[in-house]
Amino acid sequence: MATQPLEMPKTWTTSPTATEALERALKENPQALREHKEKWDVSRSDIYFEDRWQPIFREMRAAGDLHKVENSPFGPHWNVVSHRAIQHIEALPDLYSSAEGITILDRLTDEQLAELGRDRFELPMFIAMDRPKHTGQRRTVAPKFTPSNMADMDTEIRQRTGELLDSLPRREVFDWVDKVSIELTTGMLAILFDFPWEDRRLLTFWSDWAGDTEIGLIRDLDLQRQGIIREMGAYFTRLWMERAQKEPTPDLISMMIHSPAMNQMSPEEYMGNLILLIVGGNDTTRNTMSGIVHAFDKFPDQRKLFEEQPDLIPNAVQECIRYQTPLAHMRRQATEDSEIFGQTVKAGEKLILWYLSANRDETVFENPDKLDITRENARRHLAFGYGIHRCVGARLAELQLKVLLEEMHKRRMRVHVAGNVERVRANFVHGFRKMEVEITEF
């Protein structure tokens, strides 16, 4: 069980969520994010918040594998939209680097920082590193997610999931995101970090503030985010100092402490890797847990298949991950001039890999906008990335989702969307903030 809570200021109990803060800023100043002038500038968060991104990407895919955007608020970049182009780029990590950042948000130059009167605030993390440093740090945490460790964790995940599902109200409307998706994923993170159980919702709060790229375009919100991340760093630093005096344990913090590749990290690098593990372990699984319920409600024929054929659950997990795609994009930067499917990409140009689009690529997935839990090639999805940067916790995410579906089926639980559905307003994390549902039985 997780350690006791630390005596730390909990501004998260009075601070707005990242979404609330962004909505407030946009209401006060609708132009705060600057204008998106180009038709295919899919960096705008409103198309995801309003769930109308699908035809835009479909049109882009029909026109080619990648397209240049010159005047985005995030700076010029290539939108890479086809499955084959993303695989091609991810398979060449030396030619297409991760070291300049993993999201569409640019790192500000020294001149821009001086103009804004701001200090540089960068958080290195191993997903935003190239070989060999990436290799050493990834190998530190990878043992936590081996098949044998997953087998060991199955019983605990199943017990926690079953107890939570049994506690849910029947024939009464409640928020699935809050009561199920967030609770299961923050609980899992707390176990992985051996994090104080009483404070586990802090992990959700930090994840939301860290994962919203558009906040970086609004100075006051970005400064507020920096303060919140520093508070996170202070909390985790105390955990680090506490565990550095003890024998090694199997939690992620202790694994970092006793790793030659990670035990000399700067405070910024420690915070960066924490954010990677928190966002990667929280937002992705959380939003797929919500996406499954929403997709089954939208496609009742697939929900019926799930109810009648539980042997389809492992494939249903892959199809739901493909359909939801909880992280919309990742970023690479060309290290030299290259040709990609007829387009010339210059050294220094950034490429935004839209996994959201690749997972709806008609040349790979037949009728891609439909959920099909019998889809034979559902595992070809790119929601976890591809190549050396493929999600290190993919097996754990798959296990949590499989157990959730199995335990729902065991209880003959049918979940209906019965009220408000609020999506994330972001171009990076793709998911749900709220989903009012009601449970019946099949």
UniProtKB/TrEMBL annotation:
<keyword id="KW-0479">Metal-binding</keyword>
<dbReference type="Pfam" id="PF00067">
    <property type="entry name" value="p450"/>
</dbReference>
<dbReference type="GO" id="GO:0020037">
    <property type="term" value="F:heme binding"/>
</dbReference>
<dbReference type="GO" id="GO:0005506">
    <property type="term" value="F:iron ion binding"/>
</dbReference>
<dbReference type="GO" id="GO:0016705">
    <property type="term" value="F:oxidoreductase activity, acting on paired donors, with incorporation or reduction of molecular oxygen"/>
</dbReference>
<dbReference type="InterPro" id="IPR002397">
    <property type="entry name" value="Cyt_P450_B"/>
</dbReference>
<keyword id="KW-0503">Monooxygenase</keyword>
<keyword id="KW-0408">Iron</keyword>
<dbReference type="InterPro" id="IPR001128">
    <property type="entry name" value="Cyt_P450"/>
</dbReference>
<dbReference type="InterPro" id="IPR036396">
    <property type="entry name" value="Cyt_P450_sf"/>
</dbReference>
<keyword id="KW-0560">Oxidoreductase</keyword>
<dbReference type="InterPro" id="IPR017972">
    <property type="entry name" value="Cyt_P450_CS"/>
</dbReference>
<dbReference type="GO" id="GO:0004497">
    <property type="term" value="F:monooxygenase activity"/>
</dbReference>
<keyword id="KW-0349">Heme</keyword>
<protein>
    <submittedName>
        <fullName>Linalool 8-monooxygenase</fullName>
        <ecNumber>1.14.13.151</ecNumber>
    </submittedName>
</protein>
<comment type="similarity">
    <text>Belongs to the cytochrome P450 family.</text>
</comment>
